[in-house]
Amino acid sequence: MPEALIPRRQLDKLVGMAMLIVATTVFLYYTAWTLLMPFVDAGHPLHDFFPARVWAIRIPVILILLGSAVVGSFLGMVMIKSNRKQAAKAKAAAGKKKA
After folding, report:
1. Are 11 and 5 within 8 A, CB to CB?
2. Which end is more exposed in the chain, N or C (fewer Cβ atoms within 10 Å of the end residue's Cβ)?
3. What is the C-alpha to C-alpha distance for residues 80 and 65, in angstroms, rounded to an integer?
4. Other CB atoms within 10 Å distance of the CB of residue 39
């Protein structure tokens, strides 16, 4: 193995571990917020750590809409670029036929 790849692997593992920790933390927080907090009394100080329950629905809906918009935009751009390439190839082929 080239020595230049060894630090890259360690960085990849570190980034992967950080992503796993963040995802686990978000999952546990959201789970506690949506599944456990409805059973805790409204005046309990634990409610100060969580937003209003209406946001438990709004946040995922907003994220899904934004994600869909990003994916749709990406697919649209790829389709437009692909169509332009095909049109350029057809034009080049038509130019060669005439010559």
Report:
1. no
2. C
3. 22
4. 6
- Give dist(CA 32, CA 86) in Å, integer: 52
Tokens of 95: 């130019």
66-91 pLDDT, tens digit per residue, is 999 999 999 999 999 999 989 888 88
Q: How many helices (H) and strands (E) does the chain have?
A: 2, 0
Q: Quote the CA–CA distance of 28 and 42 in Å, as a whole number.
A: 21
Q: What is the pTM of this model?
A: 0.69
Query: What's the CA angle centered on 44, arms 41 and 45, to 5 degrees?
Result: 155
Q: Which contacts qualify for 53-61: CB closer than 8 Å, 24 or more apart?
A: 56/30
